[in-house]
Amino acid sequence: MSTDKTSPADKADPTEPIHLDKPHEAPVDAPPAAGEAVTAVDPRLLVREQGFAGYLSEFKRKMKAGDLGSLPVVVGLIVIMAIFQSLNSNFLTAGNLSDISVAMVGTGMIATGIVFVLLLGEIDLSVGSVSGVAGATFAVLNVTHGMSEWLALVLAILTGTVAGAIHGFVFARIGVPAFAVTLAGLLFWNGFMLQVLGSNGTINLDSEGLVAKLTSYYFSDVAAAYGLAAVAVVAFFLTSFLDSRRREAAGVPSRPLSEIVLRTVLLAVPAVGAAAVYNQYKGLPLAVVLFLAVLVLTDFVLRRTAYGRKVFALGGSIEASRRAGINVVMIRTSIYAISGTFAAIGGLFLASKITAANQGAGSGELLMNAIAAAVIGGTSLFGGRGRTWNALLGVLVITSIQYGLALQGIASPIQYMITGGVLLATVVIDAVTRKTQKSAGRA
Amino acid sequence: MVHVSATPVLALRGVSKRFGAVQALTDVELEVHAGEVVALVGDNGAGKSTLVKTIAGVHPIDDGVIEWEGRGVQINKPHDAQALGIATVYQDLALCDNIDVVGNLYLGRELRKRGILDEVEMERRSRELLTTLSIRIPSVRIPIASLSGGQRQTVAIARSMLGEPKLVILDEPTAALGVEQTAQVLDLVERLRERGHAVILISHNMADVKAVADKVAVLRLGRNNGVFDVKTTSQEEIISAITGATDNAVTRRAARNAEVQK
């Protein structure tokens, strides 16, 4: 359907009479398109053929129009893995891959929250410090004051929610730029964490405790990993299939079965592959299960609920959202509360990795990595475009680079430079696709 | 040609509005009937936008009466106007570029089924609505960013139709459009009239006004300067009412000279 390009939408349509300066005389002749077709689709444009060929042509058109989605990062990830494997054959071993996927969860959780903020076209610089506060809060409540683990865990997560809500409120209600509010938050919460930790500086967690288990527990039963993969694939197929059936029944375009099968296979291959890799090592990591659950949940909220629709609307046009009756202050505040919550959850995973809360938590490159992960994964910095799954892809890229370089014994200066280069490349792709989308917009 | 009911859907009687030292509207009268397109014209600063905003509830009126289907009503906030059945399409369309057509049509009033967005039903109804209005766009699942200016305008108008309003106010709907898109929007205006909606159309473009409007209400310096029947009035008469050509230095001088010669 490359002919799309050659027929811009505003090209004169011979079937449409133009009567501008004539006084109107019986002007409305029903356009033939609306008469004969069941659908209101303009016959000149983008009529997606039903069936597999239609799917392919749609895919090609999207690529040309700059609607790349996650494709660049997936290609990038494969390239990165291939390079590191060629440098060191230990890279693609089950143990290393399993370690990467556990290590990435902390940063990945924070990046998930960042995706929400980026969807608004805003930024949250405080997530690193807030994650540190959560780890410190848990350690102090549980270890120093002997509070029960679950209660301490909930309170630690809530500190993140409250911190985020405060940032959001100051930003949304008072109108201080988010950059400034969260920069202040970065400093404040870092100081708060140091204060909470006290003079000692480091509090060790129970290495068999709840938080330690977050990253150290593995479902060693072989059935667990395969079972999860199977459940995910079947659930995906069934929801797609039932949705398609419903659409068909309602008379709106639906996905052909062949396309659903193709998508299911595209999901099944990495799912079963990952399960096999985990089972070669210690089994299915609890951290990965929790991360996937969070991604499924957040993706559902963003795509299938009115709340998610409002978030995208705010990222697209604040004025339009306001006129549509959306409570802008409420949505903005809640987004920062969500970001803070995920920062706290991520902080607990990071504390779990080292089974301690220390003064260095939440500082250094953590903030940059979390934002970079969201952006590298394909979330637009300009707002309104992205999915929480982007956080998974992005953090996978960043953690792979870290582990790959560590295997080579390359020190962190080089690591930073490479991560910086990848981030720059991603942002360039984002800016270029945005331009392409604008220019191809009329095609 | 078009059935026009006796009671106007909306009638303004002696409406005045003041902003600080500026008397924006003075004793303005306006009547719109169901199935009628009234063009509101006037020069920049004549008070068109202010008048529309008083009807839409953005600026409450200071003096005068607004009658809705024959009874006096208060319109103090946009919500009041919407509740009465007044839909306004502003010049900046207020659509979200990143969201598809269906999402934009239902923005802020999404259909839900057990708390989850009912995309299928929204898509089905969107197609139905667009078909009824004979709006043709590539796909209802395409982001607004991919549509042309005219298509965006038609989507914005279609969006205002979702609440089945009795009165639709269009603020300069053809201002930034090409020939083809202008024709599409004018067609749409005519379809609104055929479906029995009352339409107030603000426009600077005399050709558009002549093409679709039944009546032309002229505002000049915040006052009524005549209501004309489009079919029996020439474009020159309307323009002279807009510019006040009947009352300017030249005509005054001509009148003075005529007196002197007597």
From TrEMBL, chain B:
Keyword ATP-binding listed: yes
Superkingdom per UniProt: Bacteria
Domain ABC transporter residues, every copy: 10-246
GO molecular function, one term: ATP binding
InterPro entries assigned to the protein according to its UniProt record, in alphabetical order: AAA+_ATPase, ABC_carbohydrate_import_ATPase, ABC_transporter-like_ATP-bd, P-loop_NTPase
Pfam entry (one): ABC_tran
Keywords, in A-Z order: ATP-binding, Nucleotide-binding
Protein name: ATP-binding cassette domain-containing protein
Organism (species): Streptomyces noboritoensis
